[in-house]
Amino acid sequence: MSRRATVRRAPLWLAFAIAHAVTAAAGWIYPSQPMGDVVLVYEPWATAALSGGDIVGVTQTWVYPQLALLPMLAAKLLSLPLLPIMGASGSYLVAWAVMVTVLDAVAFGALVGRTAAGSRRMAAWFWCAALLLLGPIGVYRIDAVTVPLAVLGGLWLARRPAVAAALLTVAAWMKIWPGALFAAAVVSSRHRGRMLLAAAAVTALVVTALWALGAREQILGFLTEQAGRGLQIEAVAATPFLWVAVAGGARIEYSFDILTFQIAADGADAVSAALTSLMLAAVVVIGALGVVKARRGAELPRLFPALALSLVVALIVFNKVGSPQFQAWLIAPLLLWILFDPGRSRVPAALVLVLCALTCLVYPLTYDALLRAEPLPVVLLSLRNALLLVLLAVGVLAVVRVPIPFTPRTRK
Q1: Where does the pLDDT of residue 287 fall: very low under 50, low under 70, confident under 90, or very high at 90 and above?
Q2: CB 404 within 8 A of CB 296
Q3: pLDDT over 80 at 186, yes or no
């Protein structure tokens, strides 16, 4: 590696270190327990599994796909040396932040590469800025583990399609959203056969292992658990009901079953029940549009990032949950868009950065006021949700505009 390349990479790694240190530290400072899921949910799950208790996803139905337990167990094991010094909660939080940072560093190193070319530098700066703006939920959630896996899968899509598919499938067995990147990759790539075989092999291994551990109906339990959820207050579809709550016509209630705040209002249950079907329809329509473009010869660098982003945003917009960490899902497809097609990535990249900032302003900074249905956080959340709709439109329009190579007709 040349000295010039080293000099160009050094500021990127410094920004990476600062972004992760600041974001991790903010979790200890910000209000509303932004690290709560890690210590109140992940650590007890890991402790129970390691101590002979219930194993979520195996002996009891779980809200996450089963491989999500692996990073939780890894953080628990990493925390053991710190346990006498910091106690169970403190040591687990530090171990979790270190684990996420190391995973991000692996993906960041693959992104920057050996020469730190222009588009790679832009993508690296975007990642650091997005993490800083999103705040602690960019680190202290299981979603943070899937982001670097999705980035690596996208980076290796052209040269190692089978490995990329395997990584995206592993990530989807932790949180479902990387499956959208996998779907976009299968549609856009000419190596879809190898990718489908790799995904099938990973899934077969996971299902076989779960079956051997005694899981039966729990294997797909994460799907049935989601089906019974109500309308969470941060969901895009909950926005009108929040304004009804501001006026005193709706309530915000806590669900002890799924550990989230939900809307209680006339019509909320009907909207919640319709969202799953709407999400499926949106994904099918967007995917079909991508298939049409691919069959007509659209190139992967133009089609894949726009299609991946559109599918991911559709999963957020039509989701009945709408948790703030969902915004972390946007980082991977935007990084890849900047890398593959930098000239057309500026508008969606700017929108994602604003979305990250608005999300942090809502959670955790004004979340307590949101639970009281005060106007300011409802305005911020409404803006955030409106921008998600704009981003979806931008992504779908970009897919529509993907050019089709001109093939001259041959005369008979």
Answers
A1: very high
A2: yes
A3: yes
Q: What is the separation of C-alpha 111 from the centre of its chain, rounded to a whole number of angstroms?
A: 18
pTM over 0.85: yes
Two tokens at 278? Answer: 């709407």
Q: What is the torsional sign of CA 80, 325, 168, 272?
A: positive
- State the virtual CA torsion across 51, 56, 211, 68 in degrees, nearest 10: -100
Model confidence pLDDT, tens digit, residues 199-230: 999 999 999 999 999 988 888 888 877 766 78
Residues 67 and 173 sit within 8 Å (Cβ to Cβ): yes
What are the angstrom distances between the C-alpha of 16 and each of 36, 127, 143, 375? 24, 8, 18, 35
- 360 touches 135 (CB < 8 A): yes
Reduced to 3 states, what is the DSSP secondary structure of residue 124? helix
Return the closest-CA partner of residue 45 out of 96, 94, 114.
96
* Total length of the chain: 412
Check: CB of residue 233 under 8 Å from CB of residue 323: no
Return the number of other C-beta atoms located less than 10 Å from residue 2's C-beta: 9
CB-based contacts of 201: which residues, under 8 Å, 6+ apart? 166
Question: Is the per-residue pLDDT at 410 higher than 60?
Answer: no
Instruction: Tell me how far apart the alpha carbons of residues 104 and 127 are, in angstroms, rounded to a whole number.
Output: 10
C-alpha R_g of the chain: 21
Alpha carbons within 13 angstroms on the beta-carbon side of residue 144 total 29
Give the list of residues 6+ apart from residue 293 with CB closer than 8 angstroms, or none.
303, 307, 399, 402, 404
Longest dimension (CA), the chain: 82
Comparing CA positions, the residue from 286, 273, 380 lying closest to residue 324 is 380
d(CA 395, CA 302) in angstroms, rounded, equals: 12
